[in-house]
Write a sequence for this structure.
């Protein structure tokens, strides 16, 4: 059975999310809604869907999302019963009617072969009421290659479009970065446990971009930059060997830039970068790194 977990806070688009669940052609899923002490009570709306969706609603008295979105995700996941697979669905995102049906139709293809399943997506641009072209994916793809395509802006990725094995979540959990930015990226690499991600392109998750969600907001850039640095320092460096050499060098440079976007690197950071450049030796890349080090160190 599939658990669809919704960390709820905003009412504005929630009806559309619930309607997309009610319209599923395959009803083999349970919904768990964790209300993050929202000032917008959804219970009247939920009553309209009482006979259309099997759901459990829990109101939390403490708002955690403003402190740690990951902790809010975790306590919402704790609501589930014996489901083996989990989707965390945004309270403003929408599923096409065949999403659950396509999940079960493909189940035998990835059973025991994948811990992470990804769906094709479209973006909903709330500002001008348009949608993007669909983002499709290889049916099977290494988790590191999937992330690297996003890193190179060749695709996109967000939390709602994944279903993951509960046992992998129990083993690894989510990294708790500011705004949970990059927490999903690190999860898919960790949860995959060296297995490839299976992708379903025959149904879509519609991801909403608006001024009321984190992706659409413009006033949280500093926190996103901090999260990026932590992600590269705490996760990417630890798993650098999982990427190929060309990818490693580009990721090292991205980590260096992530530091410089906030401050000048300190000595320990230069030493760490130098070490990784040496063990992933490329003459030109190393010379450029040394040049950047001297320019940064002695420019003033």
């Amino acid at each position: 059975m599939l658990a669809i977990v919704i960390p709820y806070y905003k009412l504005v688009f929630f009806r559309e999310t619930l309607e997309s669940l009610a319209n599923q052609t395959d009803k083999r899923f349970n919904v768990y809604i964790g209300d993050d002490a929202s000032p917008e009570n959804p219970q009247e709306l939920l009553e309209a869907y009482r006979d259309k969706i099997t759901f459990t609603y829990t109101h939390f008295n403490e708002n955690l999302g403003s402190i740690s979105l990951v902790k809010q995700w975790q306590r919402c996941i704790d609501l589930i019963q014996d489901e083996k697979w989990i989707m965390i669905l945004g309270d403003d995102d929408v599923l096409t009617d065949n999403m659950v049906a396509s999940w079960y139709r493909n189940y035998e293809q990835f059973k025991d072969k994948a811990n992470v399943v990804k769906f094709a997506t479209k973006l909903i641009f709330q500002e001008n009421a348009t949608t993007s072209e669909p983002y499709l994916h290889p049916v099977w793809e290494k988790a590191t290659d999937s992330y690297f395509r996003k890193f190179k802006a060749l695709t996109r990725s967000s939390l709602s479009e994944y279903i993951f094995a509960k046992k992998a979540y129990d083993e690894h959990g989510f990294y708790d970065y500011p705004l949970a930015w990059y927490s999903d990226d690190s999860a898919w690499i960790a949860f995959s446990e060296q297995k490839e991600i299976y992708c379903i392109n025959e149904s879509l998750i519609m991801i909403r971009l608006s001024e009321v969600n984190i992706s659409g907001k413009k006033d949280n850039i500093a926190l996103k930059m901090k999260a990026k640095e932590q992600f590269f320092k705490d996760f990417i460096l630890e798993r650098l060997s999982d990427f190929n050499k060309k990818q490693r060098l580009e990721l090292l440079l991205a980590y260096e830039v992530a530091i410089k976007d906030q401050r000048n690197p300190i000595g320990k950071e230069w030493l760490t970068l130098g070490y990784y450049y040496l063990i992933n030796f490329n003459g030109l890349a190393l010379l450029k790194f040394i040049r950047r080090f001297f320019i940064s160190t002695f420019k003033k």
Remarks:
- The first strand starts at residue 2 and ends at 8.
- Residues 221-298 form one domain.
